[in-house]
Design brief:
10 strands, 10-stranded mixed sheet, alpha/beta, Rossmann fold, N-(1-d-carboxylethyl)-l-norvaline Dehydrogenase, domain 2, 2 domains, 14% strand
Length: 346
């Protein structure tokens, strides 16, 4: 359906107009092969399986993800195979390896992408930055994406609650003339709340900016700055964390999710409202140059180049884990760990 957001009209697909039954009918002859069982693989594959689609898993043997797949109920030689076997058996190959993993496995996968098969992504990185990833698909296959706007863990958790994460969808190559219906069918099958149209390029640009911005990078930076100031001015760790993180995540953000920022403001004191209305534009103006710089780095391809270079380092995982441990061991998040344990138990 067409939905207007102000003067902008978008293509939106909901579960009401595109039913799960319709999706099953469209894909009834397809074998959906999930390549990779890391971030998105578990959630998407288990949701598809529970919704009645024919799904198999492809994963490197003897890896931690292989062991996770076994624990999740997938059975070797029945619906759990090596990446190569799953690539050969599948008719829709859902390429859910990490961006670095996609680059590494592409020369092998490309051999299995025979005429008429479908290649699915949940991120536009590999094909948007093809000059850097060297991912060049043939012209006789369908290529499309569905990108859930959240982690695979959240996708699975909300699915089990009868809810869903919104997803974007895009068509890159429509060899069969059926790419759109296949993409939407998988989007419905993985439990999307609704699906909105995008392109591979727009998906990756918005995704990279969002991750580095308000979703992860910027929010951590703002948390760290406010916590640091409060502690420096003599506030206790508990008070500083509660006023920086706990109140936001446990009380205020659910209100924003429910009815928007104005609703959250309305449910706070008039003193809080006045201060927030006076200060939010200052934060916007202060961060706008940073977001302009960030978008330019992403759209130019320089950010992608840094990602590929970093992931190519043989010690990348070791260095990454050290950075994550440093974050975990910072006072801000050590305090958070204690406070989470103090929350009332159900």
């Amino acid at each position: 359906m067409k939905i207007k957001f102000g003067s902008v009209e978008e293509n939106i697909v909901t579960r009401e107009e595109f039913s799960l039954e319709k999706a099953r009918k469209i894909l009834k002859k397809e074998t959906i092969s999930i390549l990779g069982y890391g971030v998105q693989g578990p959630g998407q594959s288990l949701n598809l399986k529970d919704n009645g689609f024919k799904v198999i898993i492809g994963q490197r043997k003897n890896s931690s993800s292989w062991e996770k797949a076994l624990k999740d109920g997938w059975e070797e030689k029945k619906n759990l195979f090596s990446l190569e076997e799953a690539s050969e058996k599948g008719t829709i190959l859902m390429y859910l390896l990490s961006d670095a993993g996609q680059i590494s496995f592409w020369p092998i996968l490309n051999k299995y992408l025979t005429k008429g098969k479908s290649l699915y992504f949940s991120h536009g990185f590999g094909l948007t930055f093809f000059d850097k990833t060297k991912i060049y698909p043939s012209k006789d296959i369908d290529i499309f994406l569905v990108a859930p706007k959240g982690s695979g863990t959240s996708l699975r958790r909300l699915f089990k609650q009868g809810k869903g994460i919104n997803s974007s969808y895009a068509i890159y190559q429509d060899y069969s003339g059926k790419s759109l219906e296949k993409a939407i069918s998988i989007g419905i099958g993985i439990g999307s709340g609704y699906l909105f149209e995008t392109s591979f390029k727009n998906e990756v640009l918005s995704d990279l900016v969002g991750e580095r911005g308000t979703l992860m990078g910027a929010i951590q930076g703002i948390f760290a700055a406010q916590y640091q100031i409060l502690r420096k001015k003599g506030h206790s760790p508990s008070e500083s964390f509660n006023e920086t993180v706990e109140e936001l995540t446990q009380s205020l953000m659910p209100l924003v999710s429910e009815k928007g920022m104005d609703w959250m403001y309305e449910n706070c004191s008039t003193t809080a409202q006045r201060g927030a209305l006076d200060w939010w534009k200052k934060f916007r103006d202060a961060t706008l140059p940073i977001f302009n710089e960030l978008y330019e780095e992403v759209s130019s391809g320089r950010e992608a180049e840094r990602i590929i270079e970093a992931n190519s380092d043989i010690d990348y995982r070791i260095k990454l884990n050290k950075e994550l441990q440093d974050l975990k061991k910072s006072e801000l998040w050590e305090v958070g760990s204690v406070i989470r344990d103090l929350r009332p138990k159900k």
